[in-house]
Structures are given as C-alpha cells and as structure tokens.
Amino acid sequence: MSHDHDHDHETPSGPALRAEALEALLLEKGLLDPAEVDAVIANYGERVGPLNGARVVARAWTDEAYRQRLLADGTAAAAELGIVGGPGGQMERLVVVENGPTVHNVVVCTLCSCYPWALLGLPPRWYKDPAYRSRVVREPRAVLREFGLEVPAEKALKVWDSSAEVRYLVLPERPEGTQGFSEEQLVALVPREAMIGVALVSEPPEAAA
Amino acid sequence: MSHDHDHDHETPSGPALRAEALEALLLEKGLLDPAEVDAVIANYGERVGPLNGARVVARAWTDEAYRQRLLADGTAAAAELGIVGGPGGQMERLVVVENGPTVHNVVVCTLCSCYPWALLGLPPRWYKDPAYRSRVVREPRAVLREFGLEVPAEKALKVWDSSAEVRYLVLPERPEGTQGFSEEQLVALVPREAMIGVALVSEPPEAAA
Amino acid sequence: MQGIHDLGGREGFGVLQVEKDEPAFHHRWEAAVFAMMFAAGRAGATGNSDRFRHAIERIDPAAYLEDSYYGRWLGGLETLFVEAGVLTREAIDERAQRLGAPLTARVASRPQAPPDPIVGYDASGCLRDLSTPPRFALGDAVQTTLASSPGHTRLPAYARGRPGRITAQHGGWVFPDTHAHGAGEQPAHLYTVAFEGRDLWGPGSEPGVVVHLDLFEPYLLPRKESP
Amino acid sequence: MQGIHDLGGREGFGVLQVEKDEPAFHHRWEAAVFAMMFAAGRAGATGNSDRFRHAIERIDPAAYLEDSYYGRWLGGLETLFVEAGVLTREAIDERAQRLGAPLTARVASRPQAPPDPIVGYDASGCLRDLSTPPRFALGDAVQTTLASSPGHTRLPAYARGRPGRITAQHGGWVFPDTHAHGAGEQPAHLYTVAFEGRDLWGPGSEPGVVVHLDLFEPYLLPRKESP
Fold first, then answer.
1. What is this structure's pTM?
2. Tens-place pLDDT, residues A113-123
3. B130 interaction partners in chain C (CB closer than 8 Å)
4. What is the architecture, at CATH level 2, of domain B50-208?
5. Which CATH architecture has domain D1-111?
6. What is the CB-side half-sphere exposure of residue D159 using CA atoms within 13 A?
7. D140 φ/ψ angles, rounded to the nearest 5 degrees
8. I need a surface site. Which of A64, A113, B181, D195 has the fewest CB within 10 A?
9. Which pairing describes strands C188-196 and D141-144: parallel, antiparallel, or unpaired?
C-alpha cells in the first residue's frame, strides 16, 4: 500500500488535486475561508495532542482515589481535569482499561478510525492504515511484537474495537524507577503509543542508568 | 471500479506498460516468442469458445440417454463428444447441473475465476469482476434480475461456487418452439450466458413470431 | 454493509509502517479536508457522523485503499456536498482536471443508491434515555446476528454469527444503522460484548486473546450455553 | 488467507458491467500475459496452479481491484519469475519506467513471505487415489472450520464456521493449502457441501437460496444436528 504514504512523492497525488479543486469551489461559494485551514493546522499541529491523555494517566498513578474514579467512570474523571470530550472531541463516553501483571489492553477501530481526540489528538497514520486495522483483532501478539512489545503468552490480551461512540484509553503500568516523581515529571514519560496499548511506558533513562 | 475497464482509455495503463516490459525481457532471454502471442489471440479469439458447451447441451436435449450419462458423469459424457478438458482445459472433472421447473442453477468462482475453458472458452469480463463474484453468492436473485432474468421466489436457486478443481456447466431448459429442430439448429440457440446460469435459452425468433 | 472499510481479520493488507515524530498533517490539503468538515456542517451537508462514515464507506474500494485517511474523508465529503446540492460532481471533476488531474482520475466517491434524507445532529450527542429495559444482563451469553444491514452498520463482518458474552451495559444510544440513512435515531441499548479469540479465528489462533466490541441490541440474540 | 481476492458476500464492489460481443482479449498485452503463462511453465517458474493462484492473491490489494483480470495475472507472473530467479524486480521496474510507466507506478505484486520451494505439476492433474476412506457420507451434517490457512486456501471467508450438508463425494484430490507452498500434495477427500442461504446471510436474506462449495476434508468438522 505504498500509495497510502504519498508524502514520499514529489508530484501532487490525485486526492491532493481533488482537494485543491474542492477547496477552490467552496471558497468561491463563501463556504470555506483559507484562514480556517491555517487554524486547523495550528490547532491540531500544536495545541491538541496526547498531552491530555498523559495528564489523566499521571494523575491516576499518583492519586489512588482518582484512579478508582477513572476506572469507574472515565468520562467524569477526565472532566475533573477539564477535559470534556463530547461528540466533537470524539469522546462522548470514555472507558479506561488498565494494564497490569496479568492483562494487556490494546485499542483499534476496524471499521473506520475512531479515537479519543480530546485525550490523544489526531490518530497517527498507522492507526488508520489497513494493516493495523485488519491484523490487530486477529493476531494482536504478532502486531505488538512488530512494535517491539512482547506480551507473554500467559498474559491475557484484551483488544478493544471501538465500534460505537464509546472511546477507549489504556492506563499503562507505571514504570519502575519513578518513585518520588512529580505528576508533571510523570506526564512527560507517557507516550501516545502506551495509551493506545502498542507500547509500555519505559523507565526514565536516568533511573535505568 | 472504472479502472477495471481501461479499454475505454487511450493512454496505456500501468499493467499494459508492465506487461510490455515483461514481454521484452522474456523475449531477450529467449523465453517468449511474439508468434506465441499471436497464436494465443488466434486460438482463444477464434477457435476456443462456448461452442463445445452448446454441443453438449444440444446433444442432451435430443438424446435422453446422453442426458442421463451427462448428469451422472459430465467428464465422460463430454469426452464422448471429443471434449477432453484435463487440467490444461480447466476441467479435470465436470459436473453438469440441470435447470428445471423447480430449480435454477448459477455458477461462480468467488476466490478467483475458475471456469470450464474446454467447454466455454475464456470467461467474460463480468464473470471475473469483483461485482459478480462478491454478489452472486449473497443475492443471486438480485444479480440475475440485472441480467434480465427473474427467478420466481418459489423456484429453488442453487449457486455453485467453484472452489476446487471441479468445474460446473448449467444444462438449461430447452425452449418452446424447438420441436423438430436438428441438433445443429439447437447448438446455435445456446448462448454462453445460459450455460453459466445468468440467462435462459430464448425461443427462436421464427417460433416466437 | 460488509464493504472494503470492514477490515477486521482480513489478510494481505501489508505490514505496519510507523513513522517517527509524525506531524498531525503531512500536506496542507489534508488540513484543508479537515476544515471542509466544518464547511460541510455549515452548509447543512453533513447530516451526522453516521451519515459521514457511510459516505466514506461508499468510496470506490480501490480508492479507499489508495487514498490515505484524508483522501477517504475527501471522497466522503464530495458525496455529501453533491448529495446536498451544494456542488456538482461535474464541477469538481472539471476543476480538478483544470488543476492537472488526469482525465482518467478516479471519482473518489461512488454513491450506489439514491441519496437518503439528510437528518442532522442533536448537538447533545448520541446518548439517549430509554424507557425500555435492556434485554441482556451483565454476563449473559449472546450470539451476534448473521445478517448485516446493506447500508451503514457497526457490526463488523468478522463478528457476525459468533458467540460472545456481555461485559458492560452502556444505556441507550442513537442507532447508526437508521441514523445514517435519515430513518431516525431509533435509540437502542448498547453493550460491550467479549469474544474469545478462538471463537472468532479458530482453535489455532493466538492464545489468551479476547476481542471486545460495542454492539447495539438489534445485533444480538440470546444464546443457550452448552452444558 | 482471507485476502482481497476472497470476495464472496462482500459489498460495495459495484454493479455488473456486461459488455456485448466481448472479444477474448481487449488488448494485445492481455494475450501476451496469457502467453507468458506458458513461458513461466517452460522456465520452471510456475510450479503449479495453486502456487500461481496464491501469487495472484499476494498482489497489492488496491492493484488487485484496479488491474483487471490479466493485470492480476501479470502481477502473479512477476512474482513467479522473480522468485524463480528468472528476472529481478529491479529489471522489470527499470524497463517499465523506460517505456513510460511513472516512477510511482505500483509494483503489482508484493510478496510478504520468503518464497516457498517450487514444486511442479503432475501432468496427470490433481485427482489422486486415496486409501483412507472418506470421513463423511452423503447427507452428513458438517460444520466448516473457523480457522483459515495464512497462505493459500480454498475455504472462502463467507463459509468459515458455518453449518452445511454433504451433497457429493469427489474422491481424493491434491490439497491446495500445502501444494501451493511446496509442502507436498497431501491429497484429501473432496466434497460438495450445500449451505442454506439463511445459514450464511441470516434470516432476512433471499429465499430459497442454496450455495454449494467444493471443500476439502480438513476444512470440515462433524456437526450434531439439533433435534
């Protein structure tokens, strides 16, 4: 599916030209302002990202009562931190699933690319590509292995296929070597991939050294 | 799937150019002779066609003992008329399925495009296209309706998906108005589509008038 | 509709390609497509997200695989703008060709049915109070239906006709199968259903895998458990 | 492998396009591809028809949908010539580009696994005498397996895990699932199995439809009938 990655090419692709045509027509009709496109780039390129998700995770790691509220009602617990998804944020209801010694969770949307925008920003390309969507429900351990994550056979592997308006966030395990870390320090450790479930949170380099 | 019908376009398609490249390389290696391509065009364009199938059908209509042998062992009955399929003719075993007042049969290959070459020649494009292959096992009555063939709901509809090396031929019903027709006259009446099961054999125009 | 979008469990769709430090958009046109979503909303062309998802599902299958995520959005948006009477397909084609697109460029969207009436969002989202009690309780054994809607549906092909178990109740939600087609919200109870990997992919599949789907009550039948 | 080729029951693949008085070939290159089959056989590259079918199944999915029948053959043949060491992918790419194919032209075939050993035809075909008796008798109730081979297989996705009934026994035949991969003929009993349409597509599907498949014994399990 090399064409799924047309950013490697120099010439404008079919979709690029059709998008240009559509944009020009909508502009002429007064339905779209080029400034809006710049605003989208600024907003999703800079402001909305996986930071909100990382804040939720770090709070759950440092506040046991919050962790319990988060697992009981993810939507309400996210709202406590000012993160209100709603339909626009692709997160009318949030369910948080927790990794642990006996279970690993991973999230997908096989039918389209549903994803908790309000917590994680826009999804990465691999999440939307046919390879991930087709394979992770059938051979999740093989897929995670390609991400560098070996899940032992005795660990249960739960796949969450986001087939309705419920959105899923993985609460990863807190890594060793982070005793005494502040919430802020923990936030910086949590990559997007860990909250989708295709990675663990690594130990901080200084701790591992 | 407009690209499936690139013969409408003037410029050479991607496959056309790759085929040209492959042909040139094989020619240089002495593995392919252009005369062989001409022979293929002559052979399949002119000699091999649905005539063999029509001969089998006409014989079954005019010779009751042959009809019974044909339904009991299609391979042997075809061989009686000198039609020997074998693996090269895509017909190592032939099964003939008979249409009648209570049953209609239709043939497909959903996984590729298996077809009894030795009886019917090369398959038409629609037989190989995704639309027919995907739909006819799920909604055969709707598909046949698009071919102009309404199969009454009370008639059983048997679909034969050629998933192994057995090949299927539909023995259509002999049309009204053909009493006293010679075997040769009958052969001329049987279209390829009737032997796949997407058409009936029409009454001859003079008889209908 | 078990369309090209319904990818779960299909094979041969390549290997993962993970990009390091991926930007939110790779090209300006991708952000433009994103912004067009808002324009479609303002023009009254979107309807609702179920309708939008179905517009994407109706893209030419080869285009669906080739056009990347925002290419698929673009295909869906074309259909929405055309069906709402905001733009004509001819005008889009003509302009794209003037910009350099080849004459043979695929029309990204290929509506196969007469357009449905456009029914908009309720801004408050898709959760609905339901007076009818849920048919299934936590822990109930269920079987998914074999049938699937010819239009938009959220029961993936790989989970049709399979045995599962209710692990969560989510209350009433707008039913996508009708909502996408202008046939009303018809709210239904939503459940999370857990399927053992071996019940989806056979006994030789990866061990210890459980796949969870959020499924609407009309997709579910009661199942008697074998003793 | 439930690849893009496994089309039975999928939706959204367009409407029938029937051409009147269609020629056997629409272009000379299609006949050239047909002739290349013989060339591949002479070069010892084909192996057998199971191997050739699987080479087609490994084509890039978008190319599979776009390239028409002989385009798909071409993609399969490229793989066969390359894996047999007759030609290199680079040489084909280079020549195609010299002839005018764009640099970005899709490589038609995309092998995803190391090539299997090439095992050729037995010219006498695929029928084999089997000393083991068939496991199933005419009229037996069977259930197809849920699992499907990750490589070549002839159990379509739409008939996985479904109940059917044996309507014909065809004796022993070369087993495509192993034969395609150089793992031997491993002949198996072949049966015709009839499936009621409602057992494949649900109770709302077209009435009175029975779908027949020719299935190898390893695809089948005995089924106890509900009383």
1. 0.93
2. 999 999 999 99
3. 61
4. Alpha-Beta Complex (3.90)
5. Orthogonal Bundle (1.10)
6. 34
7. -65, 140
8. A64
9. unpaired
